[in-house]
Amino acid sequence: MNNAKRVTVWEPIDIQAMCEEESEIPKLKVAAYARVSTEQDEQQSSYEAQVDYYGKYIRSNPAWEFVGIYADEGITGTNTKKRDGFNRMIADAKAGKIDLILTKSISRFARNTVDTLQTVRELSALKIEVIFEKEGIRTLDKQCEVMLTIMSSLAQEESRSISENVRWGMQKSMQDGNISLPYKRFLGYRKGEDGRPEIVPEEAEIIRDIYKMFLDGKTIRTIADTLTEHGIKTPGGKDRWSVSTIKSILSNEKYKGDALRQKTYTVDYLSKTVRKNNGEVKQYYVSNSHDAIIDEDTFNLVQAELERRSNFRSALRDNSMFSTKIICGECGYFYGRKVLHSNSKKHRKVVWYCNHRYDGDEKCASPSISESDIKKYYLEALEKLLSNKDSYITECQERLENEDVLVQLKETRQQAEISLEDLMAEIQGVVHENARKSQDQQKYRAKFNKFVQQIDEQKKRMAVLKAEELKLVGMREKLHRFIETLKNCKDATVFKEQEWNNLVERAVVKTESLDFEFKNGERIKITI
């Protein structure tokens, strides 16, 4: 046993020097990140609590300098691209404004493993630490990455599970025929006591006016400008109406009391990318889901008119009531509007001429015609129409009473819908059978492709039937408007825009005449 003497030297401790050295250590610049994923009341409280807690916690530590609270409210955590607060915090950290970041948990930071690890690695390389309080992880710890990978994978799986549960709930709701509307920016409805859409009378009148103006021949741009001029607020509460908003109202099936669910779908739970549903996932059409503001016939007529106008976009750039109604008798092109001497009140003149006049090598030589002459000749034609008014009205009423063709067309379309549903069920059965048991894949593929072809053909047939039905409904509605307008028309002394829109189908300009075709099919030639 070695009992040799051993001496250990204890160096003197300069307490004062140590205190001076400690006082020279710069404070850590500390920030916190808070996030909640929805804007519900309970989540809002959680968000405010996080902000309040971290503000007090950081300021209470004398070794820390409070930088601020970076927060995202009502934002998903599965993707960092849309999180402005988060991205601003990372940018400030990289700029040297932050040394330490505090956050409640990995799931608050990100539910995406890749994003979490990538961000932490970038910050760690700059000696910037992140502390996840719930998991007790400090990112500058050597054991951090293993724990972080495990924990963030669990958070990602939790996000996937939540997404699946939400999707299942939405699917079930759709299958049950339940609907919901974005009431804060949806004109005409509010949420009723039973949870279903309830009509707001004063807003419903605006919707009906929009449909009426459109069927009266107003362009979508004119309707938007009219509503703006009258100081009517948009669905989103803005002062100026856009063409896209009017178009959306005119084509939204919810105004006729139906609802098409799943018009869009989320590609995956991480990116949250939303795409238009062009048949990639199921859609659910709920008929009579709530009270209608627009009757079905009027709605269908508007759809037919939207389709008709879509073929005349260049002609409809002009907001005039004569657009798409004045036709060239030589080449069949539309007539366009031109203002002569536009800066002179005395000599200003509006003239209509064939749009083919200045196109290509073979220019159309059809005559131009002034707007005042169009109105004058129209009144002459109207006077002739009124001379046989009662017989025209009686004839049109008899045509409306005969609904056989429309009824047969609707029945044929409904049968086509049933056949399509049967085909869809059969192809699903084929797919499920292939998943359950082993079979010749070449035969399976041939069988599958045959069903796909049949489904495509059936869809095309349904589209044709639907177009024919809309066309017939449109013709009937035009006749109805023609009858009502003709009944109320007393004389042909003053030009009235609404009468023109409801009575005239088109006017064909020829060298020596202007031929008016009325909506009941009657043609009246006026010599010019």
UniProtKB/TrEMBL annotation:
Residues 406-468 form a coiled coil. Residues 29-177 form the Resolvase/invertase-type recombinase catalytic domain. It holds the Pfam family Zn_ribbon_recom. Keywords: Coiled coil. Residues 186-312 form the Recombinase domain. Signal peptide: none annotated. CDD domains: Ser_Recombinase (cd00338). It comes from the Bacteria. PANTHER family: DNA RECOMBINASE-RELATED (PTHR30461:SF23), DNA-INVERTASE FROM LAMBDOID PROPHAGE (PTHR30461). This is Recombinase family protein. It comes from Dorea acetigenes.
